Amino acid sequence: MGFWVCRGGKMLGYQCVVPGDATEPIFYFEALTVVSAILYAIEIPSVHRVFVFTDNTNTVDMFHSLKAKQLYNPLLLTVVDHAIRSSVQFRVGHIPGEENGIADALSRFDYVRILQLAPSIEIYNFTPPQLVLGAEKL
Question: Which of the residues 10, 33, 71, 90 could staple to 50 if both were Cys, CB 3.0 to 4.6 A apart?
Fold first, then answer.
């Protein structure tokens, strides 16, 4: 999993290894990466709007419609919960895969390609968020 942002004049890349014993489909981890990127941006002071690009149209559709299969509902619940609490609006848009090279290289831990595409990038690891599993009991 990998995403990048420009912040404070710097290009910052974030990556996380998909667990080797994971049983979820790759689409789950692509959507989880989008969730992670949105939550990262929500934590930045004075951010009111977040736009995340992904090359996966299923992920775009899921966040646009806010409808998904049961496996993916915690991803949507988590983003919506954080967005409401922080008063941040978010959107997810499509970018063609050939224009998404930095994120692809980060997700593959391909440092040679990362540095070819973004020589000044600073790379960090990230941990995906704890997901909201449903309505809280009162």
Answer: 90
CATH ID of 2-16+26-125, from 2.40.128, 3.30.420, 1.10.10, 3.40.50: 3.30.420
Per-residue confidence (pLDDT) for residue 135, from 0 to 100: 52
8 Å CB contact between 122 and 11 = yes
* Residues in CB range of 11: below 8 A, 6 or more apart: 4, 5, 118, 120, 121, 122
**pTM of the predicted structure, to 2 decimals:** 0.92
Residue of 81, 89, 60, 87 whose CA lies nearest to 130: 81
Burial of residue 80 (number of CB atoms within 10 Å: 0-12, 13-18, 19+): middle
Is the pLDDT at 134 greater than 70? The verdict is no
Across the strands, what pairs with 15? 2, 125
